[in-house]
Amino acid sequence: MLDYLDALAHAETLEDVWNLHCEEMARYGFDRLLYGYTRFITEETLGEFEDAVFLTNHDSAYFDRFIGERLFLQTPMFRWARHHGGARSWGDFWDDTQGLSEKEKEIIAFNRQMNVTAGYSISFANPSPRAFGMISLTARSGLDQADVDEIWGRDGRVIEAINHMAHLKIMSLPHRTARAGLSDRQREVLEWVGEGKSNLDIATILGVTVATVEKHLRLAREKLGVETTAHAILKASFQNQIFQD
What is the DSSP letter of 39? Predict the structure, then answer.
């Protein structure tokens, strides 16, 4: 585990962290992972879906339906994770289906059809009520839930700690969302505004016209899906797209 933590500490990109984490979880028998995180959740919604971070090594057929069609929002695992922290066996939800809705039963049947049959979900402690993150760990083919529960009984505390460390690392890196990323110049002008500079100040610093500065700010707002520059700075900061150097 120390080798993993050392590599995690020195990873510089989201891709490096995710590949490293998938390899480490496979050592414990979990070969398919699905991670999600947002800073914009409310009691009613997850916020703008495009602002959430999703990472997975499931195949696209599974991801496109389970996430793309929002099936995950209606799963008992998600409902539990939304209001609790820690780890939970899927057996707690799947073994007794009497309390589940017909839609939940349908989604569980879809998971089984896709060989997503045994695993654990972890809900992370988050820095604010507007933040939410969780990861689902799917056991490799051939392991049933009893096997997975045995693994968890032996290594669960280590697995949970490793996932929390990966989550903290992911939160510290620039986020990849469905929205287009900011250009270097767009990040630069947002940072200067965040430092209290006016558009005229920024134009002088960068050696461009005020109109060019305004264009970069407008494009940054559009990419981030916000109306004001102040909101753009806040969202870009949440996503670690600015003030990273």
Answer: S
- d(Cα 41, Cα 128) in Å, to the nearest integer? 10
- Single pTM value for the model: 0.77
- Which is higher by pLDDT, 144 or 193? 144
What 3-state class would DSSP assign to 122?
strand
Q: Which residue has tokens 């003030």?
A: 243
Architecture of domain 184-238: Orthogonal Bundle (1.10)
List the domain boundaries for the chain. 2-172, 184-238
Would you tell me which CATH number, out of the four given (3.30.930.10, 3.10.50.30, 3.30.450.80, 3.30.70.360), belongs to the domain 2-172? 3.30.450.80
Beta strand segments in 105-230, E: 119-123, 132-139
Q: 196-240 pLDDT, tens per residue?
A: 889 998 899 889 999 999 998 998 888 888 888 887 887 787 777
Report d(CA 150, CA 157) in Å as an integer.
13
